[in-house]
């Protein structure tokens, strides 16, 4: 009965929220926001009247509420975000902030006096990005907390994810937003409690899937877009209009308004895709749409369906570039590419990456603050697969006859060439990565070991891992351990004990360890086995010239070493001069291994990891050995250098 | 008609100085090999016996850059600084050779022997260097006025969304159309130095401008035609070189021969401009001498 009442209580806000965008609720919808916003383009202030609700789905009363007040990161130069001179305003008018004018609960109690700012991550008393509201009465299990909040949000400049430049407005991270109330057991948490982190320069997302009813009033000439579905545009007269949106089951709501936008639309399998771009961006709009469709198609088939009927993406003007490359599930910002030559697929890569966040962080709503690899790493891995699949025949970023680069290699280089690649484990909270290694660790290293995992278990199994991950954790909050549990389930199901009882040994090294992986061929030796000769039992035994010429047996030894601390099963392909190839499998655990062969042919080459499965190997040059040095390519490069220098000299001389 | 006649005579004179052009080619090649060969050896050393070098067979795989690590970054650094030094040395060297070439085309001696070529190159070197530097300064100032200032203005106006690049194309075109003027002045000035044996640089420049003014459109057209042909040739040569990816030893050798043949042709085209300007500038003197 208790359970029934609990379910009924949970359903009340869902029912009140109704269904407009999707047929059935995709998530538990524990939070929701109805916001009436008014944009004043001259002061760059958004005034909001918001009713926010949160359902206590725990089994205990909760006496407070925690909310993100992200825009306060731009309110002073001592906030955690702006610290160390990372951000400063463009002028006196450049500061950003969010201020609450009034706040009342459902009973009409004034809560202004119950508010205080907290700094759970670093204790910075100047940081005002996390708000705690002590409630007059605890919210009972199953009850809904309703807060009526009137607030003003001043957008910052220059734009850093959010902000304004002249008449361009990108309104993100703009309203007081609930943290996530985690119950014991959720994400391996021991006790119930709010999870609400400060605004950091490296990460910003962890929120419940929510329902948003948002209206924005603005001057009529402004063209607006958002992460919601457009419900209507109402002419208010006096050169003002109101745009009404609704969004369901997304983790954040952002919108943009600018008079200069050009609006283009396309449809893909029932999804209305809208591009807001600039006059210049129109030229590359087809490429941008193609990139989005590729990503939709690829992830839909290999991970799970894109569940919303709408998607908006923004190619901001040059002045608004600070908002480029951001993701708000059903709204993301790309970068049209500008002067980047068309052979370099950087803009497409960025579009695919930002769209991918609709899955990794949007649908699979992990805690980006605490486990950034879980969305940035996984999303980079998928972005690289998509780019390399659709563009350039495996060399997705650049594919010219004389120059090529795969997207996966581009990410891998970021990891292997970093001098700090072994500085920490890969599971740190985003703001704790030392020495500026957040990007390298969260994006590049994580993507490299995910490619390695794919190499080990196979692409089909990897895809099945993600399908299962989507099935189990879609519209919930998975942790890294939850992801690993899915990997273990699927790998055991598909491969039995081929990789041991679980894949924990893999994650302990690549995710929770900080060692590097490097195997190398230290040498290959071949000796001819002579005929029986010497002094035996006092008699001299010799061999004749004909014996010598008929000596055809060789003993060859391929010596392999493990230079790094990571141990992985590795394949070694050895080729003999009669064309025979032998594929060896080594568990890679010892510090060295010798493969010896006695046969009538010599080893001509040997390769560790011949099929490039181990992306995380930090040096692939030392993975192979050939008896013949082939320098044709370097000769060609030298010839080109000579000719280019000759031409340069002749051109620069009058 | 006069333009074609001058261009024809200029081509003939340039062709007759083939030994000088071959000398310039061989010296340039040797100079660049001093840098290129160690770079190649270092790159070979980085790969050693690794089969990863095969990934370069179909063009340079940038993915290898990370595996090659810091030594590769050092190699790139050495290549760029070596390249810069070569460029600087090359500018001096070609200024030097220009002295011999102009002496060959501006005097009645015809094609010089190697010794005379070197001697005349040495004699003209300093005034030629000064003229080259002055013309470079003039071209830089001209570029700043015609391209730089409009670009600054357009960028400041177009911040946001207004497209400005189309207007810039107009300024690029104006800039390109003005270039033959400066090249003609440079060539005619050097021709004056070579012909008179005087080292007075500013007088030489004055003579260059006077020569330009005399039958301006003929002067302008000569250099414009050669410049356009040169640009087409340079574009095609670079296109061929960059996009060619020979992957067999024999093909790489043929590629080397082809690129060197192209460079010799490029030297001939440069000499053609010198010789043609000398022909044009010499015409009034010839007329006056026959009177």
Explain how this protein is built.
The complex is a heterodimer of chains A (654) and B (291). Chain A has 654 residues and is α+β, with helices and mostly antiparallel strands. Chain A folds into 3 domains: 1-260, Immunoglobulin-like, CATH 2.60.40; 382-510, Orthogonal Bundle (Neutral Protease, domain 2), CATH 1.10.390; 519-633, Immunoglobulin-like (Sandwich), CATH 2.60.40. In chain A, 24% of the residues lie in helices and 30% in strands. Chain A has 11 helices and 32 strands. In chain A, strand 1 (31-40) and strand 2 (45-55) form a beta hairpin. In chain A, helix 4 (376-390) crosses helix 6 and helix 7 packs across helix 8. The longest helix of chain A has 21 residues, at 632-652. Mean pLDDT of chain A is 92; it is low at 1-16. Chain B has 291 residues and is an all-alpha fold. Chain B has one domain (2-290). In chain B, helix 5 (165-196) crosses helix 8 (249-290) and helix 7 packs antiparallel against helix 8 (249-290). The radius of gyration of chain B is 23 Å and the shape is globular. Chains A and B meet through strand 23, helix 5, strand 32 and helix 11 of A and helix 2, strand 1, helix 3, helix 4 and helix 7 of B. Strand 23 of chain A pairs parallel with strand 1 of chain B, so a sheet runs across the interface.
């Amino acid at each position: 009965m208790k359970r029934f009442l609990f379910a009924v209580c949970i359903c009340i806000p869902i029912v009140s929220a109704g269904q407009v965008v999707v047929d059935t609720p995709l998530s538990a919808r524990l939070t929701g926001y109805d916001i009436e916003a008014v944009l004043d383009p001259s002061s760059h202030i958004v005034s909001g009247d918001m009713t926010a609700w949160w359902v206590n789905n725990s089994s205990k009363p909760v006496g407070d509420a925690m909310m993100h007040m992200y825009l306060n990161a731009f309110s002073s130069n001592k906030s955690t975000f702006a610290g160390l001179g990372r951000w400063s305003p463009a002028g006196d008018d450049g500061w950003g902030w969010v201020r609450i004018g009034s706040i009342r609960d459902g009973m009409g109690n004034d809560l202004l006096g119950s508010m205080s700012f907290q700094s759970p991550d670093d204790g910075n008393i100047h940081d005002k990005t996390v708000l705690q509201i002590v409630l007059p009465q605890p919210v009972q299990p199953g009850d809904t907390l309703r807060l009526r909040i009137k607030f003003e949000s001043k957008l910052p400049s220059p734009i850093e994810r959010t902000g304004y430049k002249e008449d361009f407005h990108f309104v993100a991270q703009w309203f007081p937003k609930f943290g996530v109330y985690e119950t014991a057991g959720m994400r391996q948490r021991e006790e119930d409690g709010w999870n609400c982190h400060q605004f950091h320069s490296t990460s910003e997302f962890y929120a419940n899937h929510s329902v948003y009813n948002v209206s924005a009033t603005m001057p009529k000439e402004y063209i607006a877009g958002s992460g919601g579905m457009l419900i209507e545009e109402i002419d208010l007269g006096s050169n003002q209009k109101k745009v009404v949106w609704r969004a369901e089951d997304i983790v954040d709501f952002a919108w943009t308004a600018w008079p200069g936008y050009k609006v283009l639309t396309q449809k893909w399998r029932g999804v209305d895709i809208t591009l807001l771009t600039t006059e210049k961006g129109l030229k590359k709009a087809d490429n941008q749409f193609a990139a989005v469709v590729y990503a939709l198609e690829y992830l839909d088939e290999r991970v799970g369906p894109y569940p919303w009927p709408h998607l908006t993406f923004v190619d901001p003007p040059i002045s608004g570039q600070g908002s480029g490359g951001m993701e708000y599930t059903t709204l993301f910002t790309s970068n049209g590419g500008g002067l980047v030559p068309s052979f370099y697929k950087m803009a497409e890569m960025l579009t695919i990456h930002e769209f991918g966040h609709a899955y990794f962080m949007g649908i699979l709503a992990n805690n980006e603050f605490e486990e950034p690899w879980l969305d940035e790493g996984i999303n980079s891995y998928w972005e690289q697969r998509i780019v390399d699949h659709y563009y350039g025949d495996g060399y997705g970023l650049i594919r010219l006859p004389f120059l090529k680069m795969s997207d996966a290699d581009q990410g891998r280089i970021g990891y292997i060439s970093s001098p700090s690649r072994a500085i920490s484990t890969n599971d740190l909270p985003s703001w704790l990565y030392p020495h500026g290694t957040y990007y390298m660790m969260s994006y590049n290293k994580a993507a490299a070991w995910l490619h390695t995992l794919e190499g080990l278990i196979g692409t089909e199994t990897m895809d099945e891992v993600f399908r299962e991950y989507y099935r189990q954790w879609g519209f919930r909050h998975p942790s890294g351990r939850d992801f690993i549990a899915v990997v273990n389930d699927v790998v055991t199901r598909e491969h039995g004990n081929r990789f041991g009882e679980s894949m924990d040994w893999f994650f302990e090294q690549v995710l929770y360890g900080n060692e590097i992986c490097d195997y190398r061929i230290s040498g290959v030796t071949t000796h001819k086995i002579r005929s029986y000769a010497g002094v035996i039992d006092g008699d001299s035994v010799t061999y004749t010239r004909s014996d010598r010429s008929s000596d055809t047996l060789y003993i060859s030894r391929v010596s392999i070493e493990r230079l790094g601390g990571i141990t992985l099963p590795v394949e070694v392909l050895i080729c003999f001069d009669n064309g025979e190839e032998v594929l060896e499998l080594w568990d890679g655990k010892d510090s060295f291994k010798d493969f010896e062969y006695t046969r009538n042919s010599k080893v001509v080459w040997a390769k560790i990891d011949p099929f490039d499965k181990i992306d995380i190997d930090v040096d692939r040059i030392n993975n192979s050995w050939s008896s013949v040095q082939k320098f044709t390519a370097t000769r060609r490069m030298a010839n080109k250098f000579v000719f280019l220098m000759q031409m340069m000299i002749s051109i620069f001389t009058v | 008609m006069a333009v074609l006649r001058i261009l024809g005579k200029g081509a003939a004179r340039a062709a007759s100085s083939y030994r000088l052009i071959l000398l310039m080619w061989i010296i340039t090649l040797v100079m660049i090999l001093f840098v290129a060969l160690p770079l190649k050896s270092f790159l070979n050393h980085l790969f050693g016996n690794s089969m990863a070098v095969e990934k370069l067979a179909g063009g340079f795989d940038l993915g290898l850059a990370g595996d090659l690590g810091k030594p590769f970054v050092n190699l790139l650094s050495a290549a760029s600084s070596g390249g810069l030094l070569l460029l600087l040395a090359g500018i001096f060297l070609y200024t030097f050779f220009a002295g011999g070439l102009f002496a060959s085309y501006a005097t009645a001696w015809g094609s010089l022997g190697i010794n005379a070529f070197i001697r005349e190159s040495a004699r003209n070197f300093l005034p030629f260097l000064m003229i080259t530097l002055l013309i470079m300064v003039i071209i830089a100032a001209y570029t700043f006025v015609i391209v730089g200032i409009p670009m600054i203005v357009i960028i400041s106006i177009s911040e946001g969304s207004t497209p400005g690049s189309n207007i810039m194309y107009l300024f690029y075109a104006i800039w390109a159309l003005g270039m033959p003027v400066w090249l003609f002045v440079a060539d005619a000035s050097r021709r004056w130095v070579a012909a008179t044996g005087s080292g007075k640089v500013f007088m030489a420049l004055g003579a260059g401008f006077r020569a330009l003014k005399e039958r301006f459109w003929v002067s302008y057209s000569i250099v414009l035609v050669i410049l356009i042909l040169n640009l087409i040739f340079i574009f095609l040569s670079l296109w061929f070189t960059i996009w060619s990816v020979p992957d067999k030893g024999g093909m790489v050798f043929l590629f080397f021969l082809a690129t060197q043949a192209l460079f010799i042709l490029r030297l001939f085209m440069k000499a053609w401009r010198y010789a043609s300007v000398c022909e044009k500038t010499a015409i009034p003197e010839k007329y006056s001498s026959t009177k």
